[in-house]
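Appendix C reproduces, verbatim, an entry submitted by the partner laboratory led by Prof. M.T., so that reviewers can inspect both the input and the predicted structure.
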Amino acid sequence: MINLRACRQCHFISDQAKCPRCGGETSKEWQGYLVVVDPLRSMIAQKMGIKAGGRYALRVK
């Protein structure tokens, strides 16, 4: 099983120790899962400041 990690800065979910989007530190402790397909039309993506599609965590510790 792959251990997914979430970036503490941009909340992007990946399996890497450093975020491939912003280079920030990632954490194994996160909650909630959001898949953004069209960030321009998604109100949740706009509230979270997400500008690119992908998988995101709602909360990161």
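The longest helix spans residues 43-48. Additional entries are available on request from the coordinating office.
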